[in-house]
Amino acid sequence: MAVLESTARGQRPPRDAVGRRGKSRPHSPAHRGDAKLAWVLIAPALVGFLVFAAYPTVRGIYLSFTDFAVLSPPEWIGLDNYVQLLHDDVFWSALGVTVYFVLLSVSISLVVSITTAAVLHRLTSSTVIRGLIILPFLISAVVAGTVWSWMLDTQLGIVNIVIKALGGDGIQFLTSRSWAIPSIALISVWKQMGYTSIIIFAGLQTIPPTIYEAGRVDGASELTMFRRLTLPLLRPILALVVVLNVIGAFQVFDIVQVTTKGGPANASNVLQMYIYSKAFGQFDFGYAAAMSLSLFVILIAITFLQMRLLRASESDTNA
Amino acid sequence: MSRKLSIGRAAAWTYLVGVLFVTIFPFYWILRTALSDNYALSAHPASLLPVGFTWGPFQRVLGLATTEQSIAEGGSGASIHIGHYLLNSVIYASLSTGLIVFFSTLAAYAFARLQWRGRDFMFSLFLTALMVPGILTLLPNFVLVKELGLLNTFTGLILPGALFSAFNIFFLRQFMLGLSTEIEEAALIDGAGKLRVLFGITLPMTSGPIVTLSILGFIGMWNDYFWPLLATSDDSVQPLTLALAVFKQSSPQSQPDWAGLMAATLVAALPMLALFMVFGRRIVNSIGFSGIK
């Protein structure tokens, strides 16, 4: 959001133009009939909001307190689903697996993306190179998962062939308990990294070059300038990127579904996967709704915490 | 000093080339495998070029190969008619994108240009939707679509995402607020109606962000997997992402038809790659510009 606002502000005409239109003449002749037209214009969006966003949210909360198998009407069971949740080992293991995935994928993605963006920024302004880097963002997670299951195949996968040629032992990337989640995290980073890099790159371009010239005059090295100038100035964008990546990573599903289906033996059974299998494998929609709501509460809490920790809305320019 | 600098630059270039290699190599590997014969692949897994060159994998996924041919080349015998799913994906992605961008533009105009009671309240109300992740609404939406009898229809697939997007409305409203209103006011003074101004002046002036949102929206819809997975079980409306996942699962675990899978993958990715060829610069700038989504 910070990015958006600053971009929009950059292009906005003088403030008074907006203010004048905004407040002073609610009933002026120029705006006669506005209300009627306005409601007509927002009608489709309003219907969509009420029917497919607000109603399902409320209903999801309601369903989480019911026993519901779609075919018969939901039956109110109070907190039973949540009590069951507390004692469900698979749920806690799924939560653990998901957190492990989030930590791995977001931290690796962040380090690689920041490095890539910084390197791009210092070396080249070529749109072609930036274009090539976002290629994986354009394809679906299903495609990415399929390609990497082939490349990471234990016998015929090119990655293992290279590892063996270099004298290492073959790795069961997607079929062993210890490697399943790291492998999925790497696939996810591969798919996400270019996109994140481009956002950070765009942030880097808003930093005035004179700052670096001043730093260079003071004899600061590239690395020092990166640490002392670039990172602090970038913080609002980095905070946004972290928050969005974490929210996205918590809901990982597609890649897991295509590569491991949660296996082996639940080793990669992430929350969204478990919710899906509860709802559509066992038709336990009430319980699935309770887990969805729990995941939502977790996301809200984490986002709030991150915003506080990262002081997302301020940069360090005044520090 | 300058020597140290050039070492740093060399290291940076090396890093960049490495990143580019890892990014692009899988795309080459798709092509290389898709043009290979499965049995030759098992014999020469490390070959950098296609082994036992054949168009067979493409014929299999396009439904052009007979079962015997398919099995002879290590296919499963089950072929998918990818053209059909391609069409479904085109319908799903383009209708969804077109509708959502259009309706968002209408709403954005009402929020940016019109004076009406309740405007600020409605806008804040809409923005709360940004906080609610898909995970919370997808299951109830599935139940709703099922109750409406719209499972396995394009209407049920498209409608939930075609009317309202808080992000699109916010994005377009911000842009419209930044536009100068002089031309619009002149047109109003000359007696043009508000609707005429919207379609004749504001809309064309907003075409930049409209194209941006359309491109990003189309990419998102084309790659969407979870909602179609819930809303469709019948291949008459299933998009390509689902077909691909099914094809992967139906491929025998012991000896998967990797060549066929890669051919299907390539066909699935091709429209996006074509979009990229045409709009590459625009896509790169859109992502940097939007910074969200």
Overview of this structure, please?
The complex is a heterodimer of chains A (319) and B (293). In chain A, 72% of the residues lie in helices and 1% in strands. With 319 residues, chain A is mostly helical. In chain A, α5 (89-123) runs antiparallel to α12 and α12 (222-250) packs antiparallel against α15 (285-310). Chain A starts with a helix and ends in a 9-residue tail after the last helix. Chain B has 293 residues and is mostly helical. Chain B folds into two domains: 2-79 and 251-290, no CATH class; 82-231, MetI-like (MetI-like fold, Orthogonal Bundle), CATH 1.10.3720.10. Chain B is globular and about 75 Å long. The model of chain B has no long low-confidence stretch (mean pLDDT 86). At the A-B interface, α1, α2, α3, α5 and α6 of A face α1, α5, α6, α7 and α8 of B.
Low-confidence stretches of chain A: 1-25
- Count structural domains of chain A: 1
Low-confidence stretches of chain B: none
CATH fold category name of the largest domain in chain B: MetI-like fold
Topology order of chain A in helix (H) and strand (E) letters: HHHEEHHHHHHHHHHHH
The CATH architecture classification of chain A is Orthogonal Bundle
Compute the number of helices of chain B: 15
Largest beta-sheet characterization of chain A: 2 strands, antiparallel
Shape of chain A: globular
Q: Fraction of residues of chain A in helices?
A: over 70%
The most extensive contact between chains is:
A-B, 113 and 103 residues
**Beta-strand content estimate of chain A:** under 5%
CATH homologous superfamily classification of the largest domain in chain B: MetI-like
Keywords:
heterodimer; A: 319 residues; mainly alpha; MetI-like fold; two-stranded antiparallel sheet; 15 helices; 1% strand; disordered N terminus; B: 293 residues; 2 domains; 74% helix; Sugar ABC transporter permease (chain A); MetI-like (chain A); cell membrane (chain A)
